Amino acid sequence: MTVYNFSAGPAVLPKEVLRQAAAEMLDWHGSGMSVMEMSHRGKEFISIYEAAERDLRELLAVPDNYRILFMQGGALAENAIVPLNLVGRKAQPATVDFIDTGSWSAKSIKEAQKYCKVNVAASAASNRYSAIPARDSWQLSKDAAYVHICSNETIDGIEYHYVPDVDADTGGAPLVADMSSHILSRAVDVSKYGVIYGGAQKNIGPAGLTIVIVRDDLIGHALPACPSAFDWKLVAENNSMYNTPPTYGIYIAGLVFQWLKRNGGVAAMELANIAKADLLYDCLDGSRLFENRIAPECRSRMNVPFFLRDESLNDAFLAGAKERDLLQLKGHKSVGGMRASIYNAMPIEGVRALVDYLKEFERQHG
């Protein structure tokens, strides 16, 4: 039986990785210990951590003047941790600019309001989060602590296919991006960002691990109220070992990084992801029963929301999908409809199986 899991997160992991983790569960490399039993300061786990950090730096071509931090709390916690670490660079109360493109942008905005002044420089709410606001419409502050975007909205299915240039309008405010649901799915020029962060449970590994990539000059400005375990300076100085890190999450992430390298790295993943997304969007665009409501130039390659024009058929569609082992296709409760998340580990065969079912369902009900 082949099951295709389209969950938005925690999401599908490469089968090779799961098999290797299973084989090493009771005894990692002859140590006699499971990774879950290891001290995070022991030589065995330190070797796992160092390899994971090195491989991620290679995969994303992270420049030497950036630190990679392995943290906890997910992207939702980083919505607080980011302002706690960055707004101290400016006179208080500092202002942060946000571009609102959907549900996760809104969560970031709500959380940041506890720690700083928030300027929503542009919002896609008026177009029901179907497109990124035009760059020339952004009303950026002149002295913002940083400019925040969610570069791929997991719920709404919007993705930036460019890097916004904000320096000219802000006097050099760093660009901060929540990349949770498309990190490692495409090439990215890390040097154009001050901070990149993301939860691991989509393209990296299991829930519980958060990746932060931060430029050196943005470290060391935490507000006094920032908890020590979330102070990027302390985390960086202690090589992500200031407190006990999510050790098993880091181990699985490291296996995923190795899998990516064996399969051609980020460049190969991007080509595969373009092919998968094109296949699914072409089917939806040619349908009279299904529709995607996102502007084509802003469509996510990772998270594809779609709707039945006759929503009375929703339950029948999901029941049929389950019978065919196409799982987790129900859309987020806040927007309804359906959603197919097609992360790196989703093979194109899974997308073909979904497209075949979409066509079959339309023949029966269209």
UniProtKB/TrEMBL annotation:
Residue list for modification N6-(pyridoxal phosphate)lysine: K202
Protein family (similarity comment): Belongs to the class-V pyridoxal-phosphate-dependent aminotransferase family. SerC subfamily.
Signal peptide: none
Gene name, Swiss-Prot/TrEMBL: serC
Isomerase is among the record's keywords: no
UniProt entry keywords in alphabetical sequence: Amino-acid biosynthesis, Aminotransferase, Cytoplasm, Pyridoxal phosphate, Pyridoxine biosynthesis, Serine biosynthesis, Transferase
A single GO BP: pyridoxine biosynthetic process
Identification of the protein by name: Phosphoserine aminotransferase
PANTHER family noted in UniProt: PHOSPHOSERINE AMINOTRANSFERASE
Function text: Catalyzes the reversible conversion of 3-phosphohydroxypyruvate to phosphoserine and of 3-hydroxy-2-oxo-4-phosphonooxybutanoate to phosphohydroxythreonine.
Cofactor annotation remark: Binds 1 pyridoxal phosphate per subunit.
Record HAMAP family: SerC_aminotrans_5 (MF_00160)
Entries under Pfam families matching the protein: Aminotran_5
Assembly and oligomerization: Homodimer.
Residues noted as binding L-glutamate in the record, renumbered to the chain: R41
